[in-house]
Amino acid sequence: MANSVVLFNAPSHLPTKLTYTNFTIWRTQLYSGLIGHNLLGFIDGSTPPPSQTIPESPFSTKRIPNPDYILWLHQDQLILNAMLGCCVDTIQPHISTVSTSQEAWERLLVLFANKSRSRVMSLKELLLNNPRGTRSIQEYLQHMGAIADDLARVDNPLSEDDLVLYILADLGPEFKEITAALRACDTPISFDELYDKLGEYEIHLKKDEPTPSFSIATKNYIHRQNNFTS
């Protein structure tokens, strides 16, 4: 451990506050800050507290406060204070009663492990039940991509192949031909390539749509005119 306390505070070292939706990003921020100052051991347990007291002299039975422990305690409390300071008000109570930064970290891990599991389940359910409907290809793929990004943020990244399969499964009957062709490809297709191919196919479909016929409107007009003159 260092011979002096490293100043560590929320505004400077942890500017992004922890919320219920950004734990992965916040954890990266915390880790990088602590590693940069050689302080990660305080929260992961690899820098345990020294003995609180030491013998006054080699042969003395009298014990005095251990300067190393005092230094460790000061550093640990600065880290704990920073962790408290960079949590939103609704999360602070979960770690407000702990006495060390390691205890705070362990409580946060338990809290967000449970929330991450439920978040992953809801996101995967959305992937399985997210038909394109009347949305454009751009809107649909942007939404599916956003779901994949959310999964990555909760440490459950989706492979590009799986994302492509989820997308192809819910495009709708008008995309049946290109879906079959893409599934038959020998080489994997990236999300960006899929975006381009489906966008082009959507344009092709719109061009092939029959234009509204004016014959019925014309017949109705003539019929009205005949009734008027008769």
From TrEMBL:
Superkingdom classification of source: Eukaryota
A UniProt-annotated Pfam family: Retrotran_gag_2
Protein name: Uncharacterized protein
Organism: Escallonia rubra
